[in-house]
Design brief:
Layout (H helix, E strand, L loop, with lengths): L7 E8 L6 E8 L8 E5 L5 E5 L2 E5 L4 E4 L7 E4 L7 E4 L6 E7 L2 E6 L1
Length: about 110
C-alpha cells in the first residue's frame, strides 16, 4: 500500500467446502497497459549476461530480447572475460540497447 507504482487492487473471498472456513485475499498491482518495454540486442560475437533484479539472462550473439516489466529496474551487464567490470543502466519505456564488441572490449550503445 506504500508502493507508489501500485495503481489497482483486487479482493476475493471464498468459502472452503470441507471446512466451511472463509478465506480472503487482496492483491495489489498495475494494469498491463502501464507496463513499459525495452529491448536488448547482442551484436557481438559472444554470449553476454545481464541481471534484472535477481534474475540472470544469457543473450547469445545475434539475438534480441524484449522485456516488458511492470516497473523500471536496473539492468547490470557483465562482459565475458572482464572480472568485476560491469555496466549498469536504468531503462525507460521504448529504450533499445545494443551490445557491441570493438577489438577486445565490449560496450553498450543506446539507440
Amino acid at each position: 500500500m506504500l508502493d507508489a507504482d501500485v495503481t489497482e487492487t483486487g479482493v476475493a473471498v471464498a468459502r472452503g467446502e470441507e471446512t466451511g472456513y472463509y478465506y480472503a485475499v487482496q492483491m495489489f498491482g498495475r494494469s498491463k497497459s502501464q507496463a513499459f518495454e525495452f529491448k536488448i540486442t547482442n551484436q557481438s560475437d559472444a554470449t553476454v549476461e545481464y541481471k534484472i533484479g535477481d534474475r540472470t539472462f544469457p543473450l547469445p550473439p545475434g539475438l534480441i530480447r524484449t522485456h516488458q516489466p511492470c516497473r523500471s529496474s536496473e539492468v547490470t551487464f557483465r562482459w565475458p572475460g572482464a572480472e568485476g567490470e560491469a555496466r549498469v543502466v536504468q531503462p525507460s519505456n521504448g529504450d533499445r540497447f545494443v551490445v557491441l564488441k570493438e577489438q577486445e572490449s565490449f560496450r553498450l550503445k543506446k539507440e
